[in-house]
């Protein structure tokens, strides 16, 4: 039993090392120019180790994107702990998302190359299992736990697109603080429609 746990831990460490090395290579070179030989060299592993864990370069990229999305979701989840209202939690999650997306290369991985390489369906699936799940829970709390599921889904999609557009605008040089302020205003308007108290006042 101890040997099995040791083998599992070793396998997880190998996988994590490959994902970390791949992340660096994908950010430096972009997906198209990145090569698996450079990934294994940077990780200090063999091609056999790589293909034991991942079928090909796209599968490795998928793992990198998924890992990034999980980290963003964790930061969003942590940010809402102790929030007094559903709206306060949603706003805290919004700010946490923007902070999380400041990590070098993350915007490129999640908002530029992720959709281009993996396609919209796979990106949506990853989102629904990570940060999108957190957002939908926040939207449902603001609208009321008995809110129509289709309305929650539609509003969460629109809010998510709003967040992503703000991040991309910031990456292109726009003042993201302005976008964040406007988003807070829009979230407060949605909440007031539902009778949710505004945390600002």
TrEMBL record:
Domain HTH tetR-type, first and last residues per copy? 12-72
DNA-binding interval(s) = 35-54
- Which Pfam family, any one of them, does this sequence belong to? TetR_C_41
Give the highest taxon in the source lineage.
Bacteria
Q: Which UniProt keywords apply?
A: DNA-binding, Transcription, Transcription regulation
> Is the Iron-sulfur keyword given for this protein?
no
Instruction: Look up the coiled coil feature and give its residue ranges.
Output: none
Q: Which Gene3D superfamilies match?
A: Tetracycline Repressor, domain 2
Please name the InterPro entries in this protein's record: Homeodomain-like_sf, HTH-type_TetR-like_transc_reg, HTH_TetR, Rv0078-like_C
PANTHER family in the record: HTH-TYPE TRANSCRIPTIONAL REGULATOR BETI, HTH-TYPE TRANSCRIPTIONAL REGULATOR RUTR
What protein name applies here?
AcrR family transcriptional regulator
Name the species this protein comes from.
Answer: Kaistia geumhonensis
């Amino acid at each position: 039993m101890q040997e099995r746990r040791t083998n599992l831990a070793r396998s997880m460490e190998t996988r994590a090392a490959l994902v970390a090395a791949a992340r660096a290579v994908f950010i430096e070179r972009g997906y198209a120019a990145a090569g698996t030989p450079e990934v294994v060299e940077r990780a200090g592993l063999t091609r056999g180790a790589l293909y034991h864990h991942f079928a090909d370069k796209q599968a490795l990229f998928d793992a990198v994107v998924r890992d990034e999305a999980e980290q963003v979701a964790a930061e969003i989840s942590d940010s809402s702990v102790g929030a007094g209202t559903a709206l306060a939690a949603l706003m805290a999650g919004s700010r946490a998302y923007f902070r999380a997306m400041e990590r070098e290369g993350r915007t490129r991985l999640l908002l530029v190359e992720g959709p281009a390489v993996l396609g919209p369906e796979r990106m949506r699936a990853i989102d629904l299992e990570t940060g999108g799940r957190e957002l939908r829970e926040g939207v449902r709390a603001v609208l009321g736990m008995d809110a129509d599921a289709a309305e929650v889904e539609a509003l969460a999609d629109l809010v998510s697109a709003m967040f992503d557009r703000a991040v991309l605008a910031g990456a292109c040089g726009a003042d993201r603080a302005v976008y964040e302020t406007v988003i807070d205003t829009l979230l407060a308007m949605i909440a007031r429609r539902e009778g949710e108290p505004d945390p600002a006042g």
